[in-house]
Amino acid sequence: MQNFGQDLPAQLLATSAGLGWQTVEARQYADPAVADEFSTGSDRLLLVLVTGGRYRIESRSGRSWRRAGYRPGSLGVTAPGNVSVLRWRSSHPDPMESLHLHLDPAPAGGVVFPDALTLHDPFVLSGARALGAALRSGAPGLYADSVAQALVTHLAYGVVRPRRAAPKAVVPLSESEVRRVEEHMRARIADDVTVDELARAANVSKYHFIRAFAAATGLTPYRYLRRLRMRAAAETLRTTAYGVARVAAMSGYRSTGQFAAAFRTEMGVSPVEFRNSR
Questions:
Q1: Residue 106 within any structural domain of the chain
Q2: 147, 140 Cβ separation under 8 angstroms
Q3: Residue 92 in contact with residue 53, Cβ under 8 Å?
């Protein structure tokens, strides 16, 4: 999955990487009983379903903390581009586990997604559980991607949420800041890239970085990085005889299927079709 890494204090138990899912990556985690304050952010829509244990979780916005009790079936959602500051403590001896669904928000266009520490929605709960079962059974991409797209559409248009005041204007990154970020992306084009390191390259706060970058370039960092990677991949396909799997790895993708989907999104054709058209 090519979204920016999360510094989660948890043990990865299972992932859908390698199953051919293209619009969602599912990750099952064993969570620690206590997690001190940490931050996490992504350019994807993150849906978290608690599957085991009970705990008190807190999320900080500015200087104030929001609190919620989590138990199996609890849901939380983080909108693309948002950074969450979290901490929690177990309130029950049962092992704590959670399912993280990283959903591609692109099908919904520029819609503003909900961002909530707790979400009560039967449709979302049913869809998240379906993807959890799909992860356990190794279901094909056709099924998982269909469920994921239904979830994205529902979260974009079907979730009722209170009106909020208009957000404050974001100051775009300067040309030199964007240039430093792009240089860092090019240097790490085959690696996982985190929000933290890109924000450090621009010398700005990670809480400000994603929106400021998008304001300057018209693209989120994820999409900008994807474009750089696909253009570099196209050049490699054009000038070498490397197989698609090797080009995918050189472009930072562990899954050939996800690489092919990203390549088609940017270039309009599959990697094989691109190479055959030379």
A1: yes
A2: no
A3: yes
Which is it for the CA torsion 267, 270, 271, 277, positive or negative? negative
Residue 247 placed within a domain: yes
Order of strands across the sheet with 83-90?
34-41, 83-90, 55-61, 64-70
For the stretch 43-83, pLDDT in tens is 789 999 999 999 999 988 667 788 999 999 999 998 887 77
What is the rounded distance in angstroms from the CA atom of residue 11 to the CA atom of residue 31? 7
Residue 164 lies in a domain: no
Torsion angles phi and psi, residue 176, rounded to 5 = -70, -35
**Domain enclosing residue 127, as ranges:** 11-157
Sign of the Cα torsion 225, 231, 233, 236 reads negative
Q: End-to-end CA distance of the chain, in Å?
A: 28
pLDDT tens for each residue of 142-187: 999 999 999 999 998 887 555 555 556 678 999 999 999 999 999 9
- Does residue 142 sit in the same domain as residue 179? no
Question: Domain total for the chain?
Answer: 2
CA–CA gap between residue 227 and residue 189 (Å, rounded): 11
